[in-house]
């Protein structure tokens, strides 16, 4: 497919979606959001894709939702459009997603990164929810996902003051999975993606489903659901193959069935 605001590429079993409005620091407008969601769903439906990397440009992963697009809108328009409501479908992909972040990940950009399963940060990464400075609040899950990721004390600090944090602080707070040099951010995300894509894609989908249950259930219910998901992996050929390969001291050949 031809896209206007993103670049899409496949390397081995990894799909890359690159936000590509560098002059606007990859500000997220409706067109870009629609394209990202379409590309992500297409990768998710492709059995040849085992992981998805979402990247921006060196200066910015994304500096937020496009303020120029939002500026003239009123309440009823936002409701009628369900503005940015589709973004959330990214959190329901079966394919593991990794955000490679260099530069600004602010507002909707931070929320987009948090919609991914993991964030790899370059040293220049800056995360924040500065919406308060515009007289609004996070609108793509930021108040919820940031608080679950780093706790109330730090989330309130960021969301109420609008300050941003660097890669080291984001690492210390547990917002990101890894911090590397800027030049290594994408390569690291691709290495992680390649490792993940080599596994059974049924197992990776079930594993991320199990982790994500933490955000929706209590402990007892989550543990029960995990056990049911664990048992379900024994209905797969990949379980048979993975365990046979271990016993026979060889590499597994997963067929994703
Ligand atoms: C539209 C943006 C933009 C944005 C940057 N640009 N961020 N355009 N929306 N969010 C544009 C600028 O207007 C400018 O274009 C160009 O990108 C370069 O930006 P500069 O400001 O000149 O760069 P710099 O001085 O380096 O400052 C970088 C920055 C600043 C600190 C990141 O751009 C900034 O504060 N941006 C806004 C960050 C923000 O508030 N994000 C939250 C948005 S609200 P021109 O053409 O003027 O040169 C949000 C809500 C989510 O995300 C919920 C939605 C449902």
Automatic annotation (TrEMBL):
Keyword rRNA-binding appears in the UniProt entry: no
GO biological process annotation, one example: fatty acid beta-oxidation
EC number: 4.2.1.17
Record has Lyase as a keyword: yes
One annotated GO molecular function: enoyl-CoA hydratase activity
Keywords: Fatty acid metabolism, Lipid metabolism, Lyase
Function: Could possibly oxidize fatty acids using specific components.
Family: Belongs to the enoyl-CoA hydratase/isomerase family.
Name of protein: Probable enoyl-CoA hydratase echA8
Organism: Gordonia crocea
